[in-house]
Design brief:
The structure is a single chain. This protein is of the alpha/beta class. It has helices at residues 13-24, 37-40, 64-71, 86-89, 93-113, 148-152, 182-200, 227-236, 256-268, 287-298, 324-330, 338-349, 358-367, and strands at residues 4-8, 28-33, 55-58, 76-79, 118-124, 133-134, 140-141, 167-168, 205-210, 212-214, 242-243, 250-255, 276-279, 284-286, 306-307, 310-312, 371-373. A hairpin with a 5-residue loop joins strand 6 (133-134) and strand 7. The radius of gyration is 20 Å and the shape is globular.
Length: 379
Amino acid sequence: MSELVLVTGGAGFIGSHLADALLARGRRVRVLDALSPQVHGPEPRLPAYLSREVEVHVGDVRDPAAVRKALAGVDAVVHLAAEVGVGQSMYALERYVGTNDVGTAVLLEALLERPVRRLVVASSMSVYGEGRCRRADGRLVSGVRRSRAQLERGRWELEDEDGAPLTPVPTPETHPCELASVYALTKYDQERLCLMVGAAYSIPTVALRFFNAYGPRQALSNPYTGVLAIFAARYLNDRAPVVFEDGQQRRDFVSVHDIARACCLALERDGVEGEVFNVGSGQPRTVLEVAAAMARVLGKEGLAPEVTGEYRFGDIRHCFADVTRARQRLGYAPEVDFEAGLEELAEWLRGQRAADHVALARQELSNRGLTLLGSSEAA
């Protein structure tokens, strides 16, 4: 009989694509998912995109009984279940810590009783804080943070101690972690807990640090999800996307298909236990460039982004992946071209409706003092 893989959070965006990839590789797939209303809507029902070949357990990863039941007969686990979103994490602390930290602990305690051949845990690029930078003299820099005074002056770019600009460069796994949000902290906790307990109890474990995932099946009505899904929700409602700071912050957008393939490789490759890998495209793009690309494929070029000049607490300026280690050790290489990935996303979006909650989410952050308006001083 083929191997049975449990995917926690498997009814969601990444999990459903991973389920498809695993099925295509001849695995059997079981999903444990709480069907969160913020992701799946107010009526808790399975999404139509989830393969009917998947065995579904509806339950919360924080529930020991649900987790033990889901683990029965399982050979490997991919742990994706998590609350996602930097902004919301800065005020919904109990929710994020409960799901991400406690949920992971519950899963690991259950695995102590029933070990598996391989555990793969989804971490995040957010654990890096600001990505690696280079000084004008060529020296590499890590651990840079933007001060409140700098942000209040609208000086968005990263600077050295003398105020000289720094140039962002690809960030490798050896870059020190600087946790800038509650979300980042909980993702780091998930990663470290799994690797630590895996090493202690001989459960071979691999951590994957996902960069900015995009593709079909994103939760369009969730205002705290990935930026491309948020932009799509605005465009589908004929509204301009909202862009924080000046829109020149750089991110690494990676297709969900590449992420699913990386998860499969992490399950299959021998000799990578206890390691951490970046999963990205390695190609930086500014937020404004991405907004323009999305507008183009959706035919919404007339909707110019609203650039707020606001900083959102927990955000970082630049971070994009160095995927050298994943290439060499996992055999991973990004295969989906960004423009082709956007066209696929646009095709899927044409049949979708999205409730636009972006304004409400932005107001919530403002009411809680979690945004800061920079002055018009030139950087």
